[in-house]
Specification:
Layout: E1 4-8, H1 15-26, E2 29-32, H2 33-41, H3 45-52, H4 54-68, E3 74-77, H5 86-95, E4 96-103, H6 105-112, H7 127-145, E5 148-152, H8 158-171
Parallel strand pairs: 1-3, 1-4, 2-3, 4-5
Helix pairs in contact: 1-8, 2-4, 3-4, 4-5, 6-7
Length: about 170
């Protein structure tokens, strides 16, 4: 069994919420990569994207994942684009059981439609279409990068999802 669990999936899939509960259930430490980035940079993700660009953000993300993935007994919530950089997945897979939270498009849309904290979704005319495009671009990367997939729909409960992941992790 690997020492850590890493959650991957599109923005709004529930990585942070499920990650916190999963860490409590397994008595592990919870780490949110985006939170570490915002703390180190002393600014939010949108400002980082606007001021420095996506490439700068991805470099920060890569550095932090490299550092954090070396720790033990943690649940890691990653950003939605973590799978774009293969070195991130290589680092995570060394020590982490990687779980893909495969959320339905409807679920993601409902969770992100009123927010302004997602730089890739700001100033978009057709939000649902953009989410669909991101899903189509990234879904195969999530699938080949994970050890286990959990399907998430609007009706999914946090506790049921945590239980499914716990069972899969313990069997791994």
């Amino acid at each position: 069994m690997k020492e850590n669990i890493a959650l991957i999936g599109l923005m709004g899939s529930g990585k942070t919420t499920i990650g916190r509960e999963l860490a409590k259930a397994l008595e592990m430490k919870f780490i949110d990569i985006d939170s570490i980035i915002t703390t180190r940079e002393n600014r939010n993700i949108v400002d980082i994207f606007n001021d420095e660009g996506e490439e700068y953000f991805r470099k920060l993300e890569r550095t932090i994942i490299d550092e954090e993935s070396k720790k033990n007994n943690i649940v890691i919530s990653t950003g939605g684009g973590v799978i774009i950089d293969n070195s991130n997945i290589k680092n995570l897979r060394k020590t982490s059981y990687v779980i893909y939270l495969d959320s339905s498009l409807e679920c993601i849309y409902e969770r992100v439609k009123n927010g302004k904290k997602r730089p890739l979704l700001n100033d978009i005319d057709d939000l649902y279409k953009k989410i669909e495009e991101l899903y189509e671009q990234r879904n195969w990367l999530y699938k080949i990068s994970c050890d286990f997939t959990v399907e998430i729909v609007l009706e999914s409960s946090i506790q049921d999802t945590v239980d499914i992941i716990k069972k899969a992790y313990i069997k791994s």
